[in-house]
Amino acid sequence: MKNATRIVSLSLLGFCAFTVQARAQGDDMAYDYKITDSGTVGMQTVNGVSTGHAIVSKGKVRMDVSGTSRALAMPGRPGEDVTIIMLDSGKTIIYINPKTKQYMQINPMEAMDRMQKMMEGMGATMKFDFTGEPKVENLGAGPEILGHKTQHYRTTTAMKMTMNGMGESQTIETNSVTDEYLAPDLKNAADPFSGMSNGMSGMLGGTNKEYTEKVKQLRAKLPSGMELRAETQATVSMAQGSQSMKNIREVTAIRKTHATPDQFAVPTGYTKIDLPMGPGGPPPA
Fold it and tell me: Under a CB-based contact definition with an 8 Å cutoff, are residues 55 and 257 in contact?
């Protein structure tokens, strides 16, 4: 049971950024951004900073990332440059490693389903419960960013999962609080980070229809405005201790562009690899 709990907690930490969904509206846009994360994973202290460039076009996102942040790292290869391509409004995620000329393709919800089936194969069952209603708060005017006035919103989500098997019971609780600074005058600009505020609780409840619908209703309360900065504090708590990550993402430049199909395709000659076991992601199929 301890191994099963460890796999689930590591998977949640590895997937906390996989809830990205691009809005298919407005012009093709290009962004520069900075990602900073810090926290603890087990006994390890994590600190990292990455910068990158994003292109958003008609529900597709391409993010070129360089640095040491784990928030957008390739599973199993933190600290290496990576290109991330998100298709179908985030339903398909492709990680491309230019150093090794390898790539992996992931459907986040399918990966979580595989993890749940693996738990069942180990004799464990999982039950989802709400530890509080998801909520969004309007905290008033935020700072001016890149010449755009912003509004400050705080989103809070929480979920509890109970695992039973082999005569033992384990409970994993996740909590995620995100402070977002949205620019109302950029309401028609496609947003590369839309959906990341769902955090760990969003992934933990990803296969729970009731929770998914509540998060959807929650996000609908936010105004139509582009996120220029956000800070997310996410925690996974269990009997063995807590693991937490703080992530700050900020847009540092915005401009219109014209995207081409090849920017959202895997380069010729790259080898496909499986999703690894370990801190970067859940077990392969």
Answer: yes
